[in-house]
Each structure stands twice: as structure tokens, then as C-alpha cells.
What we know:
It comes from Capsella rubella. By secondary structure, the chain is of the alpha/beta class.
Amino acid sequence: MASLFNQVPSISTVFALYTSLSATTLILRKILNDIVPKPLRDYITKKFAELFSSHFQSNFTFVIDKTWDFCENQTFRAAEVYLKSRVAGLSTRELPVGSSDLKNPDAEINFGVPVNTKIFDEFEGIHLEWIMHNVESNNHKYVKQYFRLTCKKEFREKIMKDYFPHFAKSAAKIMRQRENLYIYTYNQMRSAWEPAIFKHHTTFETLAMEPKLKTTIIEDLDAFAKGKDFFKGVGRAWKRGYLLYGPPGTGKSSMVAAIANHMNYNIYDLQIQSVRDDGELRKILTATKNKSILLIEDIDCGTDVSHRRQTTKEEDVKLQKDKKKDDFGISLSGLLNFVDGLWSSCGEERIIIFTTNHKEMIDPALIRPGRMDVHILMDYCTPYVLKKLVAMYLKIDDHVLFDPIEKLVLEVSVTPAEVAQQIMATKNADIAVNGLLEFLGNKKMEKGDGKVEKEGELEYADTKEA
Ligand SMILES: Nc1ncnc2c1ncn2[C@@H]1O[C@H](COP(=O)(O)OP(=O)(O)OP(=O)(O)O)[C@@H](O)[C@H]1O
């Protein structure tokens, strides 16, 4: 027993040892702090922490960055939409909420994904943890956003195989059901697209046009929406270009609204005349999202793409070089590059719509097959279109004056906008129809107007896909 006690150090020895160890540690730490700069110390500490956590933790983390290959990462987008639908009941100290419905202040509020907050999810009994991170760059110029999705290591494969498709599908469903469509306009001062709620009520139901033409367009859109495998199979970007041309007031903008409502796509309305140069165009376009319509109205106006220039690529480059510093505008090659070049392979499910009142003014290169796949003539009223407008506005599908009105419509060029304006003037159907007859009669007398030759025309620039 006594020998045992002899081997145990006394309390004073232990205390002395402890004191000298503490002192040595303090001195060492002081020396380290003095000679190793703080960023290097932080780096070493971080690396140690990572090394230990990867050795001793049984978790695996997927990192989902906001950008991927310089484009918006669709997995990030899907995660954001999916998580927004799950945060309402979250027990957290903060939750972003808001609404962008300017006309309706008491509209239902939406939830955002809180930053640096754990969001738990469960999939087939597997516990998952999401966190969204925002990291500001050193110069505070941009914020890097990413999600970390953590699960137990053994479920890594399962999560990849089943959970990723699960939340992507859920997000797609939510997006399809979302109430609001948005129309984006580009704010050059802020270098950003700004959304406004798109509330154009025109649908294919309310768009007056020849039924055969309408059905063909709807079928074309539906085929496009289901065409993922087709486009992949033939190695082409999943995009479709529509050129809407015809006189003012024949429903080109209404057609864009009908397409957006039918497809449930947001619209990016680009004022091409205000784009400074090709570089800016590229930046603007890569900031647009999938399942959207890029709309360029009046493509014939204001830029050098409008003039029927038969320049070669070399001439085009020279023209760009010759531009003065303060010259604004984009070149034809810039526009062409985005229509079928790099940008188109960046996104998926994109519709590009050009509208013009003067198709003949557009450079043929811009609307050749593969760029503008379908050319749709929005023309003056036919008897069918006129009767459809009357039925919609006045709720009548027959009238004694229909015969003379139909004859006149074939003799004069009258736009649906003009007809709509006439019959909207009163709610009394008789007065409205009489007014319309008089209006058409005056038009005929005034002008000796030419007969309407075409009744709405659709031309597939690329017949293989039609
Ligand atoms: N085909 C149509 N069916 C129903 N309404 C139409 C049609 N075309 C025009 N309208 C009516 O006329 C108005 C103007 O039409 P819209 O702006 O679509 O014509 P547009 O061809 O785009 O004209 P612009 O070339 O001047 O921009 C619409 O708000 C709508 O009320």
C-alpha cells in the first residue's frame, strides 16, 4: 500500500506541472500570434476543423451554388422554390415575407428562404438539413449564394438518385401552379431585370383569329413544351422562335399575352434600342431564366439590325470597330450570336418572339430557319374574325346587318383593334352593329381600299419541327 502511495505524485507536484504547462502554452500562443499573421492562423484553424469533421462526422453535404457554368443553376432554383413552400411553419427567429403585387396591397404574402437558418426536411424516413448561405465578396460587390444540403453519409446515393428528382419535380409543379406571371423590364441603372405582375387577360380563347391558324399555333406550342427529348435527341437548344408580323392593331401584343398565359411563362420585354453594345446584350440575356419568353417588339426599329444590310461577318466587325465611343446599339452579329449561339445553349425551354410591322425591313439572316422557326402573319379582319369580336364584345352571334358587314370586310382593310374600338363605344348591340357598318362604309368610300388578300398566314421556317 505504502509503495503505491509512493508512486502517486503529490498534489503540489501536479499543481506545479499544471502551472508550468499553462505558462508554456500561453508563451507559445503569444509567439504564434506575434509571428503568424491572422489570415494564415484562420486558414490553418479552418483546415484543421475541416480535417477533423470529415474524419469524425458521419454526414455528407451537397453544395448547390446559385450559378453553374456561368448560368443560373436550375438545381438551386428548384431548391429555392421547394423550400419556400416548406418554411411557413418553421420555428425560426426570422422569416422573409413579402408580396410584389403593386395593385393589390392586401394580396396574400409569400415566404422567402431565411439565410443561415436550418430547414429540416424528411424524405422516406431520411432526415435532411438545408441551409442557405449568403457570402459577400471582399469588395462587397456581389453576394455568393448557395445551399448546403446535409444527410447521413450512407444515404448519399439515395438522396442523389431519389431526393433531388423529388424536390425538382415538386418545384416544377409549384411553378406551374403559381398564380402570377411576371413581365420583366431591364433597368440599366441597376443592371438588373425588374419584375412587374403580368395581368394581360388575353388568352387563345379571347384572341380573335382564324381557327385553323389558332389551332396550329397552340399545337406547335404544346409540342414545344413536350419537346425536351426531341431537342436533346437532335442536339439542338430547347428553344423556339416566333416572328409575329403584320399591320399595327392586328393583335401581335395580344398574341404574346396569349402565348405567355398558355405556356405559363414569364416575359422578358427587351427594349433592344436601349442596349448599349453586344457585351451588355450578352449580360442581359444570360440573366434571364428558363421557361420564359424573350420579347423584342418592333425589331425593325432603331438598331442597325433593322436595315436590310447584306454585310458579311468581316464587314460587320469593321462596322463595330468604326463605331464612335458613344455610339449606342448592338450589331447584327451580336444579335445573331445570342439567337443561335452561346446563349441559346445556356438555357432551356425558351421562347423568343420578335414582332414587327415591317417584315421586309428585317435582315433575312435574323429570321432564317432555326432562328425564327415560325412566322405568323397577324392580318386585317376576315369575316370570321370580325364576327368573333362582335360575339365577344356584344354577346350576339347573329344580326340582320351581318351580311353587308361581311361583304364590306372583304373589301376594306380593317384591323381587329379598329373593330374592337367601334363596338366598345356602346353596350347596345343594335347601335354598335349599325355604327360598325357605317364605319366600314366610310372606310370604303375614303380610300377605295384594296381587298384583303390573306386571311392570316402561318409559315414554318423550319418544316421538320412543325
Ligand atoms: N386578334 C385580336 N383579337 C382580339 N382583340 C384584338 C385582336 N387584335 C387586336 N385586338 C384588340 O386591339 C388592341 C390592340 O391590339 P395589339 O396591341 O395586340 O395589336 P398590335 O398588333 O400589337 O399593335 P402594334 O403593332 O401597334 O403594337 C388589343 O388591346 C385588343 O383589344
